[in-house]
Nudix hydrolase domain-containing protein
Amino acid sequence: MGDKRIAFQTHGFAVVVCRHPVSGKFLAVSESRGRGWWLPAGHVDYGQTFVEAALRETQEEAGVDVTLKGVLAVEHSLTSPETARMRVIFYAEPTDIHQAPKSKPDRESEGAEWLSIPEIEAKRGLPLPHGLRGEELLRWGVYVAGGGVIGPLTVSRSGRYEGIFRLNDPGPVYVGTAAEAVERGLSSPSHMQQSGIDTANLDRHEGAKQWTPLHRAVADGAEERVRSLLLAGAKPDGRTHKGRTALHFAVSRNNDVIVRLLLLAGADPCAADSEGRTPADIADSVGDDKVLRLIQLSRE
């Protein structure tokens, strides 16, 4: 093939996770052709942005006008040596909280409903068309309902094709060295100092119990300190003298916010301590519903 370049085609898809701000229920679409319940989603048409496609698909499939509030995920995967698929998963809320979802079938969908998490879970395992098309409706519903991180949405204002959106904020957790965080503009030396973070001893084990600064922050329930340590590059799976990780601590204290931060940073829910107990074991025995669900989702 030499230096000849091949045109690389990327197919875009917009997916919308829409939650009602009053009821807390999620917008679910009964897919056409008996494919089951799923999220409003569809192909980005020629000449459209992802944002425009998200708004159009939600209106066409669910009959609801929405306001996009943020981005949950951006996915890019190869489908062949010459083609790829890119999906942008948006978080949205209805523009009019009183607007009823579509009730009459058409070629776009069979209809739509606002469903609670228990109602979505009840459809799990049911045969199509009554069951779920896939796990994403439930997975994203649980994530958002549990206070999951939603990235900011910034639409380019200087030109239609200059940018679809920018993720100016990488989220609350950046796993890497402090130097890399500073280099990427995610933090600064002064911010680290103001947060009381000793970047030279992030993973230092201290005392007879061999706790790291992350263990101490989790034990204190100091969510912002945990966030800052992870941002600075602290390893989430450091061990105490009994082999316990910070996730062991967070789960045993039922702190779902810190559990979520640690899992996002790559903490292992199946790491066994010296007694053979894993964070998942602790969640099964003493975890509240939020913590248990977070651990379960991390293992799927």
About this structure: DSSP finds eleven helices and seven strands in the chain. The radius of gyration is 22 Å.
